[in-house]
Give the backbone structure.
Amino acid sequence: MDLGFRGEVADFYHRFRRGYPPAVIDSLVEMFALTTDDVVVDLGCGTGQLTLPIAERVRSVVAVDPEPDMLLRARRAASEHEVTNVSWMVGSDTDIPTLGTLIGDGRLGAVTIGQALHWMRHEELFRAVVPFARSGGGVAVVTNGTPLWLQDTAWSRALCGYLEDWLGSKPTRTCGTDDASQRRYRDSLIAAGYDTAVVSVDYSDELSAEQIVGGVYSALPVARIPPAEQRPRFAERLGEVLQPHQPFVEQIQVTILIGRIP
Ligand SMILES: C[S@@+](CC[C@H](N)C(=O)[O-])C[C@H]1O[C@@H](n2cnc3c(N)ncnc32)[C@H](O)[C@@H]1O
């Protein structure tokens, strides 16, 4: 399956997607009692939004993603930030059993999944992690706010309408952030034998029109991004649609669904 996180999308992703505030990393460290003895797997690591700050708090991170371009961009970011304790691996959720065998039974501090579980077979994944996680370790499913076009603000509704005209259909993907998906994930964690908890970190931030355009491009499969010569027109027309709704304030809720091995 072509996920489309390739080429320019990797660059847009890195440039325009939010990272995670320090309170999110603190919560992960606290909930799993992570220390500098721990190994963490960051699954669906993208360009390293969770990987790099977690790496500063543990012994090492194995960062896994099926898209080589995302990994390349992440590796470059790690080198820019002088982060040297991450192994970057092309792979996916189905590689967890092999990876777990390498790390060893009961040795894994946590598997973190930032804004990526909706691409995975979560029930199998949760079960697969159990033998490798140490007591008190487990799985963290992290969301990073509501997609830009689904927020409860006038500018977001205007963006949604613009994208509907342009794509030919209403953008509706929630990317696992909706309540029903979160309930499903939590039920699956419980069924696999984890104790669960939910932590959320809320903050607000103002976006520029350029950040909204970049955020949209970062969320499209590479084949759907307007060709370079059409981008100025795309941005100009979107700017006109958004302009009456300034300032573009976003309320971000990061949710951390924790599944802990008793
Ligand atoms: C929306 S990005 C999230 C990146 C980053 N973790 C973050 O929090 O911003 C989703 C990532 O999941 C990766 N992905 C898609 N399917 C996957 C799978 N089956 N296993 C692991 N990663 C996957 C994609 O290649 C992409 O880099």
In short: Residues 44 and 70 are 9 Å apart (CA to CA). Residues 7-146+174-217+252-260 form a domain with the Rossmann fold fold (CATH 3.40.50.150). The chain has a mean pLDDT of 95.
